[in-house]
Amino acid sequence: MSSIYGHPSRPHRRLLRGAASAAALLLLAASATGQPRAGERPDLSGIWQALNTANWDLEAHAAEPGPVASLGALLAVPPGPGVVVGGTIPYLPGAIEQRRQNRERRWSDDPELKCYMPGVPRANYLPYPFQIVQGTDTILMSYEFADAVRIVHMTDPGPAPDYSWMGWSVGRWDGDTLVVDVTDQRDETWLDRSGNYHSEDLRVVERYTLRSPDVLMYEATIEDPQVFARPWTIRMPLYRHVEDNAQLMDFKCIPFVEDVLYSEIGR
């Protein structure tokens, strides 16, 4: 279970992390490259990471100063060409003002700053690695940031029991592409540090396709009739960690944000 702040409880976190580690060891011997044999599905198991600036802003953006002038370039916003297909997020006229307000308050209101679980698709392009452990009936995705975890159900699990931080993921294969339909996400998460946001009507359809053993093409089509005028798509490569000691490390960020959370509760 997760707390109201989007932090997984300790027993739940240990259980999921343990399951991820055990499953990863079993799958390691089954596939060293991720390339499918004839008649087999590709094995996406491995540790992956985006190497872009999408977490700063999904759209194209210039470099900007950070929130603390005395730190110079340390927290400056790096430039990026954007990952939105077509270039622009199609906000409804009534929703763009909320995006503007979010951007103005990004150095205090971004859920990432508070160590909230990031939601989908943002979890996949945070500047932290994540691990895919591929089974037959389920696929586990474990994220270094905030110990976030989600399970992709490859058989119909029925409706989601409730809204959650990482949503309800149902997968299928379209040829050699893994397609994941993600629904029932809480609306507290943002799509990036620039304040792009969504409502609880968000639906994300992800597509994972191996371009080569160490490059995974990621595409996510985002639909939310309360916020966006039409569905829109982001696209980027994810790169496999191939170093000998590749592993997810612990990034237990909750202690770093206690002052922020307690100050909010006290307001």
Task: Provide a concise account of the structure shown.
This protein has 267 residues and is an alpha+beta fold.
Topology:
Elements lengths: L9 H21 L15 E5 L45 H9 L1 H4 L20 E5 L3 E6 L5 E5 L14 E7 L2 E7 L19 E10 L2 E9 L8 E9 L17 H8 L2
Parallel strand pairs: 4-5
Antiparallel strand pairs: 1-2, 1-9, 2-3, 3-4, 5-6, 6-7, 7-8, 8-9
Characterise this structure:
The chain has a single domain (10-63, 80-265), classed as Lipocalin, CATH 2.40.128. It is built from 4 helices and 9 strands. The protein has helices at residues 10-30, 96-104, 106-109, 258-265; strands at 46-50, 130-134, 138-143, 149-153, 168-174, 177-183, 203-212, 215-223, 232-240. A 9-stranded mixed barrel has the order 1-2-3-4-5-6-7-8-9. A hairpin with a 5-residue loop joins strand 3 and strand 4. The longest helix is centred in the N-terminal third of the chain and has 21 residues, at 10-30.
- The beta-strand count equals 9
How many structural domains does the protein architecture include?
1
Mean pLDDT: 89
The CATH topology is given as Lipocalin
| Large-scale geometry | globular
Known CATH architecture: Beta Barrel
- Strand ordering within the main sheet: 1-2-3-4-5-6-7-8-9
User: How is the biggest beta sheet arranged?
Assistant: 9 strands, mixed, barrel
Provide keyphrases for this structure.
16% helix, 267 residues, alpha+beta, single chain, 9-stranded mixed beta barrel, 4 helices
